Amino acid sequence: MLSQGVRTLFLFSLLVLSASAELLATPTPIKVVVIATFEIGADSGDVPGELQNWVEREHLTNPIKVPGMDHAVYVTQSGLMVVVSGATSRCAIQIQSLVLDPRFDFTRAYWMLAGIAGVDPAEASIGSAAWARYVVDGDDAYEVDPREVSGDWPYGILVLGADRPNVKPPPQGWEPAKMSYELNPALVARAYSLTKDVKLEDTPQMKAYRGAYIGFPNAQKPPFVLLGDVLGCNRYWHGEHLTHWARDWVKLMTDGKGEFAMSAMEDQGVALALHSLAQQQKVDFRRVLFLRTASNYCMQSPKQGVIDSLKGNSGAFLPSLDAAYSVGSAVVHDILNNWDDVYAKGVDSP
Fold first, then answer.
1. Per-residue b or e along 105-134, where b marks 16 or more CB atoms closer than 10 Å to that residue's CB
2. Which of 122, 282, 291, 306 has a CA positioned 20 to 30 A from the CA of residue 105?
3. Contact 44, 36 (CB under 8 A)
């Protein structure tokens, strides 16, 4: 019969061997990560958020808890992972926690944020879906109450170090190093080409709502897929003057190359996290996509007050969730089905 001391040593050795085996286990290679930013209630069977359509339509089961993430993740044998990042730029911390989990290998993974947003009526209509070429950070700025600004200023938001709006001063040495992220043009072009003819849901309520946007021909079209850039900002802003700021800000931060289309609250955080992780060679930033679908306009119509517009019901919430899945899944399935022939080596030409 083993003595108590020998039994203790034996059990301790088993624990060490088990822990060592887990650490030495080969991480699961992930081919594509879909990022939803929020969910409402359960992951299936109730009112959907951005995750639910993926869970139900991709038949995802067996959620996995990842330390540092508020919501469990789903992984399939085909290499698809679906996660919930959480709202605002604080989601950057959760994305970093996910990538640092030793159970998974993200070095060749493609990333696609697929979520709803506000759309500039000059660019598109509610229910539309936009693939971003640029992700722009709208958080780091000077801000002055608009009631106190100079009379010729269009808004009270300035680039750090500037003395008036819509001017980028010389580098100060203390401002953020990066305020915009250019995505792989070839990958974005392929995603757009694959999805530009996807039929998006439209309803009589949406048609009636967009009809009020007189003078905005793109806002009055049925939903469509487009190329359009996203501005990420922790504040849920709204209105004509702030839309003016968003258009200027995106152009300014991309040196005139970007075109504001979608407003969001998470993209700047996700882009920052993935860009940082790419510098650590844990992910490949050339394999990153941002897809936003319009649940609302980011400014009022000529027939509305700004608060009525902010609180108004466009009828596009559920259709925009459906569009995020319909458009996004076409690219996800293309990645999984053509991994060996196209995606494993990377997409470097349209």
1. ebbbbbbbbbbbbbbbbbbbbbbbbbbbbb
2. 291
3. no
pTM confidence score = 0.91
Domain assignment present for 208: yes
| Percentages (nearest 5) of helix, strand, coil residues in the chain | 35, 20, 45
* Per-residue pLDDT tens over the stretch 9-36: 444 444 444 444 444 579 999 999 999 9
pLDDT in tens, 159-184: 999 999 999 999 888 989 899 999 99
pLDDT given at position 25: 79
**Alpha-carbon distances of 86 from 45, 106, 137, rounded to whole Å:** 20, 20, 17
* CA dist list (Å): 254 to 91, 227, 258, 278: 23, 15, 6, 21
**CB contact at 8 A, 106 and 283:** yes
Q: Which two tokens stand for residue 240?
A: 């004509």
Domain count within the chain: 1
Q: Which helix (H) or strand (E) holds 296?
A: strand 288-297
> Six-digit token pair at 258?
């970007």
198 lies in which domain range? 28-140+176-342
| Residue 33 lies inside a defined structural domain of this protein | yes
